[in-house]
Amino acid sequence: GAGVSQSPSNKVTEKGKDVELRCDPISGHTALYWYRQSLGQGLEFLIYFQGNSAPDKSGLPSDRFSAERTGGSVSTLTIQRTQQEDSAVYLCASSLAGGRVYNEQFFGPGTRLTVL
Amino acid sequence: QKEVEQNSGPLSVPEGAIASLNCTYSDRGSQSFFWYRQYSGKSPELIMSIYSNGDKEDGRFTAQLNKASQYVSLLIRDSQPSDSATYLCAVIPSRGGSQGNLIFGKGTKLSVKP
Q: Between B2 and A67, whose confidence is greater?
């Protein structure tokens, strides 16, 4: 079946502009995660959605970052007033049910964000 | 103390040899451990998950978990040049954070020489 899809694959923006990144999880997966990967920081968790519950935003680095998930499926990560330090690859992952055990997460291809 | 630690490498092995990748973690209560493979410019790909002490084999891959020593490893038998990639160890913490976010090590770069 289809895996996690993300769009766009690449995004170049100017400092101060807003950007939206999209994730479409594997069909039937109720848990959705956003991570980002940068050279200096490795892979870090940003936000987690489980079904229709309120998201866990504990990993968001600042209030410029927000995300929503519509209908328990597609998610959009929004970065307002982008800064150069936001340049990274933004990765979305989904899993069947989330939780701390047996939670195999499958990643999408990522969106490479470059802030000039 | 870093939560998940890996030797950054590079680890270089000849084709056909066994590659051994190691990872230690700090959260003694963690119950879920994963190995991801990441080719340059690509996203992480799940190759093994392990939840119980001991070995778990899948084809040429064997994951080993020792919760008492807080140690998880990945063995790749009959290494091929196509195995050349960065291998990421990931752990789900037992507390804090979200319900199930992964904590990643920095990864070990493996190079298999023909």
A: A67
Tokens 């400092």, residue located? A15
Q: Which of B3, B89, B98 to mutate: most A Cβ within 10 Å?
A: B98
Which of B51, B101, B108 should be substituted to probe chain A, the one whose Cβ sees the most A Cβ atoms within 10 Å? B101
- Flag if B102 and A45 touch (Cβ within 8 Å): yes
> Does the pLDDT value for residue A30 go beyond 70?
yes
Higher pLDDT, A98 or A68: A68
Q: Tell me the per-residue pLDDT of B39-74, one tens digit each, with 9 for 90 and over.
A: 999 999 999 999 999 999 999 999 999 999 999 999
| Cβ-based neighbours of A20, under 8 Å, separated by 6 or more | A76, A77, A78
Strand A111-115 to strand B85-92: parallel, antiparallel, or no bridges (unpaired)?
Answer: unpaired
**Are residues B104 and A38 in contact, defined by beta-carbon separation less than 8 angstroms?**
no
